[in-house]
Design brief:
The protein has 361 residues and is α+β, with helices and mostly antiparallel strands. It contains 12 helices and 10 strands. The longest helix has 20 residues.
């Protein structure tokens, strides 16, 4: 948008906000002088007003540039946080409004106290109902086999879209370990519960220390950055009777590592089998193997074996959690923690011999 168009839009915006005709007398970019830092998260304009409650304001706009400002959601969060906090600190410049730019028009969000999302309604049965039935009956149908094949094929198709963005990949690896919904957030959530039956504070700290080494190992695999779902588990897949399905609740970003989605789905074959049999066996083991075989045949992604262990650690911490699964048998929790410990010690994941990571001793 050129300067004249910006001036006209700012005059409309301030007039609407102030309840009268406001004139923009001058617009001046801020920053860029001698001694200024060489990097910033956006641009600032000094705007001089006439017939407004204040004579001068600074308009802050955001830009991409790493450091957690990559997506529209990141930049929205930063703007809303600034508006919510600037005026609570003595001596800080006051925030007057927060807004969005929609098709060139400036829209105020200053009165917003929360946000919402509206989606379509999707018919279907959650996939975890299938896994519950399989665990209970210890039997597979051809429909169960087809569905595992469909999910593996769909993930292969999703992951075929690639992106060259090393900084974004490093961020996603950083989030795998440090995000409040990921490994460190899960570890902290255990503090609220008695641990003696299945783990200890010392074991949790040991897991965290090993994760530091894994983070520095994984962040150099940026060539793996691909399109992901981000929460590809059986509660987020709705099956219809015609074997078509709908996905729900894509999470934590558009791009990541394919290991995220593969671990998120396959660990549930392991989880339901552990609850029913104490090990990965029978029909759920067949689905585990079938999914891996179909996915790897479609993608040829043998390198995944070298990056997937921490993704399984994250998902196992969710499944073992007393917060997320309060009624889980303590033996299953302990098996999941053995799985976690051994995952962090290996160089590559052997999906055909997972039982070695679960057994006692």
């Amino acid at each position: 948008m050129d300067e004249a168009a910006v001036r006209d839009e700012l005059q409309r915006y301030f007039s609407e906000r102030c309840g009268g005709v406001v004139r923009v007398r001058a617009i001046e970019p801020l920053g860029g002088g001698a001694g200024e830092k060489g990097f910033g998260y956006g641009a600032q304009l000094r705007v001089t007003l006439e017939n407004a409650p204040v004579d001068e304001v600074v308009v802050h706009t955001s830009a991409t540039g790493g450091f957690g400002h990559d997506t529209l959601a990141d930049r929205a969060a930063a703007a809303v946080l600034a508006y919510e906090t600037f005026n609570n600190l003595p001596g800080h410049v006051r925030a007057l409004d927060v807004g969005a730019i929609r098709s060139g028009a400036w829209v105020s969000l200053g009165e917003a106290r929360d946000f919402f999302l509206i989606t379509e309604y999707a018919e279907g049965e959650p996939y975890f109902h299938d896994l519950e039935r399989i665990a209970e009956t210890n039997a597979l149908s051809e429909t169960d086999r087809r569905r595992a094949d469909c999910l593996a094929a769909h993930l292969a198709e999703i992951h075929a879209a690639r992106k060259e963005a090393p900084a974004l990949y490093a961020r996603r690896i950083r989030e795998l370990f440090g995000h409040h919904e990921c490994i460190l957030g899960l570890l902290d959530s255990y503090d609220a519960f008695p641990l003696a039956e299945f783990t200890s504070a010392a074991e949790l700290r040991a897991i965290e220390r090993r994760c530091v080494d894994w983070r520095h190992r994984l962040k150099w695999f940026s060539h793996r950055l691909c399109r992901v779902h981000g929460d590809f588990h059986p509660w987020n897949v709705l099956w219809r009777p015609d074997d078509q399905f709908t996905l729900l609740d894509r999470s934590r970003g558009e791009w990541g590592d394919a290991a995220d989605d593969v671990s998120c789905m396959t660990i549930n074959y392991l989880f339901f089998s552990l609850q029913a049999h104490g090990q990965l066996t029978g029909p759920l083991q067949e689905l585990w193997l079938r999914f891996w075989e179909r996915y790897l045949a479609a993608t040829q992604d043998e390198e995944m074996r070298r990056v997937i262990p921490p993704y399984f650690v994250w998902r196992a911490l969710v499944l073992a959690s007393p917060l997320w699964y309060p009624n889980l048998d303590v033996r299953v929790r302990r098996a999941l923690f053995r799985f976690i410990q051994r995952l962090l010690e290996i160089e590559a994941f052997d999906w055909q011999n997972v039982e070695a990571l679960l057994r006692e001793g």
